[in-house]
Write a structure and sequence with these properties.
Layout (H helix, E strand, L loop, with lengths): L2 E3 L18 E6 L9 E5 L7 E3 L20 E8 L7 E2 L12 E5 L15 E2 L1 H9 L4 E4 L13 H9 L2 E4 L9 E6 L10 E3 L3 E3 L2
Length: 206
């Protein structure tokens, strides 16, 4: 059985959205200093690496991260490789073939290095969200920092996910994963009231 780890490594080198909180570690106790344990504090944005957005990130009064049903983040998944230019939106015409799973991951290859934030990554057109939702898709993942373009004046793809009740999984690393059907495991933490959660996202061959 092959398992693909589709999460970037979390370290101070990991890039985050400009202006957000980069990950850092404070070591409170350390075995190397003679303490009985090693004990660390993590400080970082919750939109860290591979992460799930909560509806309250893009919808006023919408549910927070712990209110998502966990079954959205576990189960059959289809990875679709997309040919799209940097800075462009994925359109419905780029989705080749039939959607065969309730969870869809889009591999655009437009954000190749999680430690080097390039602002010209690709994103989703709202009609792609609508079309996938109409086919029963409950989660859309992407290998970029956002389902919306960096320079977008309005978060139109996020809003399309909100009106269609579709979960968003961002910041994935999909460059070495072939297109096809998998089992997705990407469960968010039970962070009460929060607008996102990091995940350890995995794909397992059926």
């Amino acid at each position: 059985m092959t398992i693909y780890d589709i999460s970037p490594a979390i370290s101070p080198d990991l890039s985050v959205w400009p202006g957000d909180t980069t990950p850092s570690r404070e070591v409170l106790l350390d075995l190397a200093r003679g303490d009985d344990f090693t004990l660390s504090t993590l400080r970082a944005t919750v939109h860290l690496g591979a992460h799930v957005d909560a509806p309250n990130h893009y919808g006023l009064g919408a549910p927070s991260i712990e209110q998502w049903s966990l079954d959205r983040f576990l189960g059959p998944c289809q990875l679709i490789r997309i040919t799209v230019k940097r800075g462009a939106r994925v359109t419905t015409q780029m989705l080749a073939g039939t959607v065969e799973a309730e969870r869809v991951l889009l591999a655009t290859d437009t954000f190749p290095d999680p430690t080097d934030f390039n602002e010209d990554f690709a994103a989703c057109a709202p009609d792609v969200i609508d079309a996938l939702a109409q086919q029963g898709v409950v989660l859309i993942g992407i290998d970029t920092p956002s389902v919306d373009l960096f320079a977008a004046k309005e978060p139109v793809a996020h809003r399309a996910c909100l009106r269609n009740d579709v979960a968003i999984l961002e910041g994935l690393v999909l460059r070495d994963v072939p297109a096809g059907l998998y089992e997705l495991i990407a469960v968010p933490l039970k962070l009460v009231g929060f607008d996102a959660s990091p995940v350890r996202a995995l794909l397992r061959e059926p």
